[in-house]
Design brief:
Its cofactor is Ca(2+); heme b. Its EC number is 1.11.1.7. GO terms for molecular function: heme binding; lactoperoxidase activity; metal ion binding. It is globular and about 70 Å long. It is mainly α. The protein contains 14 helices and two strands. Helix 2 runs antiparallel to helix 4 and helix 3 crosses helix 5. It binds protoporphyrin IX containing FE and 2-acetamido-2-deoxy-beta-D-glucopyranose (3 copies). The site of one 2-acetamido-2-deoxy-beta-D-glucopyranose has 5 residues, from loops. One 2-acetamido-2-deoxy-beta-D-glucopyranose binds next to loops.
């Protein structure tokens, strides 16, 4: 009796030691970051707003309890911001108080969720209360994307900060050429990515963002009508056809059929099983240039997490405004009103 108790204690102790060693190994695993863009740093707000990151995280942790859909929405907003005219918060602008039309008007942006724009602005207000107007909306978009990845079970990582907010939205052409369509093949995807210095490994890793979130029928029904895309699994086709019986049905389905709400590597397992949702997803397991990377991420989640962090941080530094460029917005949805002094200078200069 006493002997078996002692031996079970030994077992418990051994298991504990193993767990401690594993946790320690995980926490010392070196994170890999791309070179930082000039003007950005990991501790940008250390003096001016030391609590910035915890304010963002605390706000978001409680907001996602009310609305878990914020997670995929915020992961996608940072991507749309960065792919079009750089990570300058221009995707956040509304029609009002800008000259021109908001990026949100154009087709790829029509499915960005309004609640996520509101969360970014609410966080901005909380940050201004704590520190004054020092944290940019573009940085908030990067931080909320990072925290969303982690809240969904993905990797945690550091975000380079110091982005400034842009003054104007991108044009319709810039939005449509910057954001590839879900019907794209690898050549078309790489045409868009190479313009912003992202490579084929970045393409495969960043597409892993589709491990969470939803899509509307018209984003993938090119693969259902007039007939099943032959690269799509028959069972998966039947399921999707029930949701979208006709072209353009106004319904949604999950991007990752295995674990739709968890940030993990199952998206790549979907691809191996011919159950990727968009053409732009499934082609990654067909094209010879990307197939091996898909396979590697499907069998090794750590390899995916490592590369996702590297590529997402790289993406987060595309064409950033820094230093005295741009501005720090007082409202993420609007450019600051011009200051009186400057409008007088403008008038004088125009008068010359
Ligand atoms: C590589 C090219 C990409 C294409 C063609 C693409 C296309 C799309 C499309 C069409 C949707 C669904 C829109 C709808 O029907 O509602 C979507 C959703 C989504 N995308 Fe992408 N995407 C790409 C890259 C990315 C990247 C780089 C990320 C982030 C790392 C990302 C994250 C997401 C997320 C999280 C959703 C779900 C949004 C939600 O549930 O609100 N995508 N994407
Ligand atoms: C923004 O304004 C344009 C016209 O300039 C209009 O077509 C568009 O629907 C508006 N978009 C939003 C999101 O209100
Ligand atoms: C990709 O699509 C383009 C047309 O949009 C086509 O010319 C090209 O052959 C396709 N490439 C591959 C690798 O399928
Ligand atoms: C989030 C957002 O602003 N979405 C807009 C996309 O564009 C349509 C009009 O084209 C608006 O109705 C949506 O509000």
């Amino acid at each position: 009796m006493a002997g078996s108790r002692a031996s079970s204690l030994v077992v418990v102790a051994v298991v504990l030691v193993i767990v401690i060693v594993m946790v320690a190994a995980a926490s010392v695993s070196a994170e890999r970051y791309p070179p930082l863009a000039p003007g950005l740093s990991f501790d940008f707000y250390k003096k001016s707003c030391p609590k910035a990151e915890s304010i963002v995280k605390d706000f978001l942790s409680s907001a996602v309890k009310q609305n878990p859909g914020l997670i995929p929405a915020l992961i996608r907003i940072h991507f749309h911001d960065c792919f079009v005219q750089g990570c300058d918060g221009s995707v956040l602008l509304d029609n009002s108080s800008i000259s021109g039309t908001s990026e949100k008007t154009y087709i790829p942006n029509q499915t960005l969720r309004p609640a996520a724009f509101k969360a970014i602005n609410d966080i901005r207000n909380a940050l201004e209360k704590a520190c004054g107007r020092v944290v940019s909306c573009a940085d908030i978009a990067a931080l909320t994307a990072r925290d969303s990845v982690q809240l969904a079970g993905g990797p945690s990582y550091k975000v380079p900060l110091g982005r400034r907010d842009g003054l104007s939205p991108a044009s319709e052409t810039a939005v449509l050429t910057g954001l590839p369509a879900p019907t794209s093949n690898v050549t078309e995807l790489m045409d868009a990515l190479s313009k912003i210095k992202l490579d084929i490994t970045d393409l495969v890793a960043l597409s892993g963002g589709h491990t969470v979130g939803i899509a509307h029928c018209n984003s993938f029904d090119n693969r259902l009508f007039p007939a099943r895309d032959p690269t799509m699994d028959q069972w998966f086709f039947t399921q999707l056809n029930k949701i979208c019986p006709l072209p353009n049905t106004d319904k949604t389905t999950v991007n990752d059929i295995r674990t739709p709400h968890v940030f993990d590597n199952k998206y790549y397992v979907d691809l191996l099983n011919r159950q990727g949702l968009f053409t732009s997803d499934q082609v990654l397991n067909v094209d010879a240039r990307t197939k091996d990377i898909v396979h590697k991420f499907a069998v090794d989640q750590n390899a995916f997490f490592d590369q996702f962090v590297y590529s997402y941080v790289k993406m987060g530094q595309i064409q950033v405004l820094t230093g005295s460029q741009g501005q720090i917005r007082a409202n993420c949805a609007a450019r600051n009103p011009p200051r009186l002094a400057w409008s007088i200078v403008d008038t004088l200069l125009l008068g010359l």
